[in-house]
């Protein structure tokens, strides 16, 4: 699938406006299957175990997990279904553009899309969810064997049958949508939610009041602006409000700008642009946005079958606000221009 080529220059950076002023290679790790609902690591308290590990809420505690790849460029907007996701990952792809992976469990929208193709970094992220259902439009032929070995229920367009359909709002490939309920009918073995490392609760001490935080890639940029009225961070894309097709603005109660080393994988598109490989295991730095404040944090993920934990720079748990979480993956280090 074609992405726009990046202009020279540009980096994954964070700009904050104050109110007062994977594994080392392309091959994903093999993960042994687990039982539905079994956490990757014990929740710290009985209270935490009674809430959804993705949102901190009480809805959908036993619902299966569905991950969907969604286009994140201008021709695809406004997108459908993202507003209902528990977790939204933003990943760099070829040409310096980005693509979303929306993870659902608490709630399912009526439709989701535009659905696009998977990338190798997805297969490094997904093992922490156990064995989720994974919906996407396809992959290049060299990557198919990795999808077959991955701990996912493959409900791509090739396997999803009538769950996928073409809309009349745009030209292909930006008009492929799916019905999440029908998708999950094709994945009866998809597992329920498990601990992915998030901790929810009152905000930790400290933090800097901020109005806006922005994230940039070589050919894309997003921003998140705090809305005291809605008590969440409202997303923008390319300098414009990032709207939901269902109405209203996209955005989350918690936004994590996670810095992870990004290198070139062995995969590339038909234009010759190499697919980025985002290393989401190990440790690194992050900026966590919640309740109108910015917190400097650290992230840690020991292996691909474990979740990612976040702590403050003082070592205390970096708690999230209850509700939708955005994980915005940015390159740590020098600019990565594919």
Automatic annotation (TrEMBL):
It comes from the Bacteria. Residues 24-57 are annotated as: Disordered. Residues 32-56 have a biased composition (Low complexity). Residues 62-190, 218-327 form the DUF3048 domain. InterPro entries: DUF3048_C, DUF3048_N, YerB-like_sf. This is DUF3048 domain-containing protein. It comes from Actinomadura parmotrematis. The lineage of its organism: Bacteria, Bacillati, Actinomycetota, Actinomycetes, Streptosporangiales.
């Amino acid at each position: 699938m074609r992405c726009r080529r990046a202009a020279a220059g540009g980096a994954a950076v964070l700009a904050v406006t104050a109110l007062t002023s994977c594994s080392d290679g392309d091959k994903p790790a093999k993960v042994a299957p687990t039982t539905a609902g079994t956490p990757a690591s014990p929740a710290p308290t009985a209270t935490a175990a009674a809430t959804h590990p993705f949102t901190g809420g009480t809805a959908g505690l036993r619902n299966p997990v569905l991950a969907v790849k969604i286009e994140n460029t201008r021709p695809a907007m406004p997108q459908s279904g993202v507003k209902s996701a528990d977790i939204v990952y933003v990943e760099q792809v070829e040409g310096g553009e980005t693509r979303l992976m929306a993870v659902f469990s608490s709630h399912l929208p009526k439709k989701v899309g535009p659905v696009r193709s998977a990338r190798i970094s997805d297969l490094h992220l997904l093992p922490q969810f156990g064995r989720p259902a994974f919906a996407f439009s396809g992959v290049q032929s060299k990557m198919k064997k990795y999808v077959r070995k991955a701990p996912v229920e493959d409900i791509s367009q090739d396997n999803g049958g009538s769950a996928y359909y073409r809309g009349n709002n745009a030209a292909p490939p930006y008009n492929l949508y799916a019905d999440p309920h029908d998708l999950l009918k094709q994945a009866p073995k998809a597992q329920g939610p498990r601990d992915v490392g998030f901790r929810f609760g009152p905000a930790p001490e400290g933090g800097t009041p901020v109005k806006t935080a922005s994230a940039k890639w070589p050919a894309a940029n997003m921003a998140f602006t705090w809305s005291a009225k809605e008590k969440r961070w409202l997303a923008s894309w390319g300098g414009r409000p990032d709207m939901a097709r269902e109405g209203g603005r996209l955005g989350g109660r918690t936004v994590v700008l996670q810095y992870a080393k990004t290198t070139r994988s062995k995969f590339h598109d038909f234009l010759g642009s190499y697919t980025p490989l985002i290393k989401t295991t190990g440790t690194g730095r992050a900026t966590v946005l919640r309740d109108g404040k910015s917190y400097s944090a650290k992230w840690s993920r020991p292996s691909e079958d474990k979740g990612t934990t976040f702590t403050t720079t003082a070592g205390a748990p970096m708690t999230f606000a209850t509700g939708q979480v955005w994980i915005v993956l940015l390159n740590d280090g020098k600019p990565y221009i594919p």
